[in-house]
Amino acid sequence: MTRIAAIAEPPSDALTVDPSAWVSPDARIFPSVRGTKIAIGAGSRLFEFAVIRAVGGSGDVVIGERCMINPHCVLYSGSGIEIGNDVALAPGVQIVPANHAYHRRDIPIAQQGFLPSKGGVKIGDDVWVGANAVLLDGAAIGKGAVIAAGAVVSGEVPPYEIWGGVPARKIGIRGEATP
């Protein structure tokens, strides 16, 4: 018979949820047992089947006020996630601010740990991230920007620009006609 080791209890301050925020009973939050923090701001909503998991680094996950984290979004803490106010993550958005080391051939990738941080993921206020977009370590989304569905972002997106594609590139400016 296989025995499963007990999992350490996270510190009491590892997870803070503002009393006015709403977290679906079907969402999953896995706080850190290593000291990183997860904070969900006032009026924010975390819908069913969304996952926030503290893994892969030493960064905190901080979600601002009045944010919507829609179904099937996955946020890994990695090198840290900062989400501003009034941000909408459409269904299926993945935020992964960590990169596995993979250069050595004599050690399986899963045993090589992680590459150095590129700064985590930072999302400004009033941003919309479309369905199934992926934000990678080093992504910095400026205020008012829009990320198209399915885009993969790993760098800086200036304020109010619209980016899409793999890898993501500028496809328009918010408030102007898009091609």
How many β-strand stretches? 21
Strand proportion, as a percent range, falls in 25-35%
Global shape: globular
Order of helices and strands: EEEEEEEEEEEEEEEEEEEEE
As residue ranges, the low-confidence spans are 1-7
Protein structure class? mainly beta
Biggest β-sheet: count, sense, barrel?
8 strands, mixed
Adjacency order of strands in the biggest sheet: 2-5-8-11-14-17-20-21
Q: Give the % helix.
A: under 10%
CATH topology, by name, is: UDP N-Acetylglucosamine Acyltransferase, domain 1
Mean pLDDT: 91
Integer count of domains: 1
Rounded to an integer in angstroms, the radius of gyration calculated over CA atoms is 17 Å
Query: What name goes with the CATH superfamily?
Result: Hexapeptide repeat proteins
Q: Give the class-level CATH name.
A: Mainly Beta
- What is the CATH architecture term? 3 Solenoid
Number of alpha- plus pi-helical segments? 0
Measured distance between first and last alpha carbons: 61 Å
Which tags fit this structure?
single chain; 179 residues; mainly beta; UDP N-Acetylglucosamine Acyltransferase, domain 1; 21 strands; 0% helix; globular; disordered N terminus
Description of the structure:
It holds the Pfam family Hexapep. The chain has one domain (15-172): UDP N-Acetylglucosamine Acyltransferase, domain 1 (3 Solenoid). The chain is globular. The chain has strands at 15-17, 22-23, 28-30, 38-40, 45-46, 51-53, 61-63, 68-69, 74-76, 81-83, 88-89, 94-96, 121-123, 128-129, 134-136, 140-141, 146-147, 152-153, 156-157, 161-164, 169-173. It is mainly beta and 179 residues long. It has an eight-stranded mixed β-sheet with strand order 2-5-8-11-14-17-20-21, with no helix packed on it. Strands 1-4-7-10-13-16-19 form a seven-stranded parallel β-sheet, with no helix packed on it. Strands 3-6-9-12-15-18 form a six-stranded parallel β-sheet, with no helix packed on it.
